[in-house]
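Researcher: Structure prediction, please.
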Amino acid sequence: KARPLVIDRDRSALTAADGKPYAGCYVNATIDIWAMDNNFGKRINASLGGVQFLCDGDAFAGGGVATPDDFENMSEGADAEALI
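Model: Predicted structure follows.
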């Protein structure tokens, strides 16, 4: 629900415009892991607390960001019930 902390090596804040972190770089990260056993089921959960850029690595293609062209135009003809 909240954006995790993303910082540089010197602990200054990073934004998307900084270009880091990126897929393939090295980072330090804090991850909270916990088990759940209640009315909603049994499972292992995890949440990302923060990421600190550590050093450059071999960049690789990630999932990228979707654009409107990645989707079909559903404004006419399709019935929402039929798509489920």
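Model: The helical segments are 80-83.
Researcher: Thanks, that helps.
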